[in-house]
Amino acid sequence: MQRLEGKVAIVTGGARGMGESTVRLFVEHGARVVIGDIAEDAGTALADELGDAAVFCPMDVTREADWEAAVAAAQAMGPLNVLVNNAGIVHMASILDTSREDFMRVVEVNQLSTFLGVKAVINPMKAAGGGSIINISSIDGLHSCAGLGAYSASKWAVRGFTKAAAIELGQYGIRVNSVHPGGIFTEMGGRGVVSEEDLNNSLYKDFPIPRTGQPEEVAYVTLFLATDEASYSTGSEFVADGGWFAGMRRPGMPCS
């Protein structure tokens, strides 16, 4: 069953990682997709592989002109129904070692881009009769940890902005939800630096689901929110974190 038949979507950061998995899954389920990314080689290759169902749009998500180009590319495919604000970066450092420039770079890519994306698709989605906006936050938008001051601040902001947008846009048939991945095995999550086995045996061994997550496991959550199956869900957080937010199994405790 093609759950997104006839829908047109924009996926930012769509050339690699969770974005790529989302693009592939959307196309598999019948959507036509604009892949927005600064990674031109990877984005072009993915679009070429997927054929007429996808087009690559070079995109710096902090630039309003690039959002206008992405929306135009989407509308050339049909009425715009879905936006996935997936593009993001992480900066790992103590607060003392984080410069103003470091902090603002994370804010612009993670937080400002979400605002620009939502703003850019409101009128097209109104014209389409409604739509679904999915903002990719993080488990660090629900709690935090040392060394992620800038990243966590931006992802909490995405979560809060999602609720404000949901309240404002629901009257137009536009749903807005946030997705909160935990540790996912992408380049940002350690792929290419450490093996998946080593991660599972160290960082994730005490998780309720004792392993790192895969990009497609988040993409399936995003897929649900993009479909009409999620028609009464808005302003909510959808978590895919292996139980991280629930808590850990502690050595020495019963059932551990």
TrEMBL record:
GO molecular function: glucose 1-dehydrogenase [NAD(P)+] activity
Pfam families cross-referenced by the UniProt entry: adh_short_C2 (PF13561)
Assigned keywords, A-Z: Lipid metabolism, NAD, Oxidoreductase, Steroid metabolism
Gene Ontology BP annotations: steroid metabolic process
Family: Belongs to the short-chain dehydrogenases/reductases (SDR) family.
Protein name: Glucose 1-dehydrogenase
Protein source organism: Seongchinamella unica
PANTHER family registered for this protein in UniProt: 3-OXOACYL-(ACYL-CARRIER-PROTEIN) REDUCTASE (AFU_ORTHOLOGUE AFUA_6G11210), NAD(P)-BINDING ROSSMANN-FOLD SUPERFAMILY PROTEIN
Lineage: superkingdom: Bacteria
InterPro entries: NAD(P)-bd_dom_sf, Sc_DH/Rdtase_CS, SDR_fam
EC number: 1.1.1.47
